[in-house]
Known about the structure:
heterodimer, B: 4-stranded antiparallel β-sheet
Amino acid sequence: MSQLIVSPSPHIHSKDSTRSLMLDVVIALVPAVLCSFVFYGWREMLVMAVSIASCVLLEWAITKYLLKKPSTIGDLSAVITGILLALNVPYTTPWWVIVIGAVVAIGVAKMTFGGLGQNIWNPALVGRVFLLVSFPTYMTTWSQPQGLFGADAVTGATPLGAIQEGLMQGATVQDIMAEHGYSYSQMLFANLGGSAGEVCALALLAGFVYLCIRKVIKPWITLSILCTVALTSLIFWGINPARFTDPLFNLLTGGLILGACFMATDYVTSPMSTWGGVVFGVGIGLLTVFIRYFGSYPEGVSFAILIMNSLVPLINMGFKQKKFGRK
Amino acid sequence: MGKRTFSIGGVHPHDNKISRECRIEPLPLASTVYISVAQHIGAPAVPVVAVGDKVKVGQVIAEPGGFVSAFIHSSVSGTVKSVGPRADLAGRPSVHIEIAVEGDEWLEGIDTSDTLVTEIPSDNKAILDKIRLGGVVGLGGATFPTHVKLSPPPGSKCERVIINGCECEPYLTSDFRTLLEKGEQVVVGAAILKQVMGGVPCTIAIEENKPEAIAHIREVIGKLGYSGIEVMEMKMMYPQGGEKQLIDAVMGRQVGSGALPISVGAVVQNVATALAVYDAVQKNKPIVDNSVTVTGECFPHQANLLVRVGTPLRYILDYLGGIPEEAAKVISGGPMMGRAVANLDAATVKGTGALLLLTEKQTRRAPESNCIRCGKCADACPMGLEPFLLNKLARAKDWDAMEQQAVQDCIECGCCLYSCPAQIPLLDNIRIGKGIVLGNIRARAAAAKAAAEAAKASADAKK
């Protein structure tokens, strides 16, 4: 002891840091990433590597050369954006399309607003939606999972896309499902065609449970999304099962679980309070179902989350914790 | 019934009670003590001794300087060497009475034996007077004069006395040891407080991490045959020992902003205060000493010491082997709310409950990064405030908005800063705003009072 440190209380700190929380999210994503590798093989690994590398490098370059500030890549949030972006695109996406997605995600959606914590929209989703709108061909040519050492891709439509197309041609939901031979157990363990992150619901749910146990996130946003989607689709399906898909189908397809567990729960772009989170989740659930049933895109989760992201400041103002001893 | 705790927020730091097996042992007397006249909330006491006076242990050396103030007694026998300013633990000067220790002669009439006196005097006024003359102040941290707290304003009614044995701060064990070693005295003290408040029920609240104390106090209550005193086992949660939080946990009632506990019918006293009440009423012994936990992982000799008021901190640490090389911070109190010591030559006061030594690694704050809006600070705040928002407002110096956001309710427990993953100095900034807002509120009240008086004076003049 040479000189005493004198500073205000508290004198100790919890073990949580931004980096440790983000590391937990990365760990939670590992099962889904491994599943995507197993189902899609080396091309998915390439997509993942390009996505993570371009996100991290871009953030590093922007902080160093444009903002001239200390690098923030150590907080690992760019790694998460990279993983999520990779899980949100088909494994057949060319590398340069992914780089453009990373530029939009990190450059436009995150760093332009001031970096982690300042962005309004989930960066990975902004990148994904930008690619969906700009490169619809690459982004909607889905391929059936061929496995780690599989042969060339067999292209096909995602279940949601197939249903949308079938309905437009006047078929009933039951006919389309039977024609494509979709089964729920197949969706739960290894999905049919879709972006990488949609492939294994169980792996994603395992990651979600891990995050809840580690108290990184609270389950309310995710649960309210899933419950809203289930209930709303139950009502429509109950009224007309030939026109509307059933609740279980809606829960297991189209990246709903990826979105509900990992995108909607992003700290920065979700409400602070528990009840605000529930309202946010219900909004995402309703928008998702309505876009799927009545919109021109077969898939609704990304848009639903981005729309609700925009409302977060308002939700935060409306839903506050009750103050102690005050009305 | 599940274990109870308060309803909003709270954090769960590791309790680190590494000194829990250390019995309370008396610290040998220092050669000189320095007794502050400002050891309590309220007006400082006024010295009534002069240089050269001979004093005995328990003799009054300073008298209350106002209604909210307290008697100060000599903690040693000896000669008054000086009366004047001396640096306190923050290094700020305040009036101390320096006494050179000679022997250990107690004032006549003080019962220094260990005999337990269970017969409680029937005259409540006399009891209150003894508490006042004994210089008893709240030893849980606030050091509010106890006799004032026990004299509720007219119209208010006490419904329950709560004895606070939570000791929710990590590391601290002096209340725990007091419950184990002086349980009888604490329970008699509780019975006295219960009688003074009109025989209302009394709850001794102890957190679940102290099962031995819970079992012991239950046994003591049974043995002494008191009815209406119960032990409540509390869930472990910081800051349960906060007065408002404890009332919420025990009674399910929330004290309003700016209101006193008595407004919801509660009177809360700390375990050490209950012991001091016992000493003052049953043994005529004023507060001259108190138990101090000396602890820290880097410290080789964990201890609970019975320390005379006014003992220099350096003397205590030297007695236990000195400050280890790796210790970087000495804290008076616990790690969440204690104050960092700037001056080791400062002396203990009645409210000194612990000396905690932390290494630089344990106490270093990581560099601040962007707020990631995780909401952990708002989840942790036991007052239901939004620390992230108050922090922004404080940085913008928007004091009026801070007042609207109830910064004046902040109890400075530190939960927000403790839980912030971005290491934003939330409480540091909030404290600054709180100080200014409280000043504004006081200034407004004073201005309103002055205006009312002026209006009254002009109305009187017109008559």
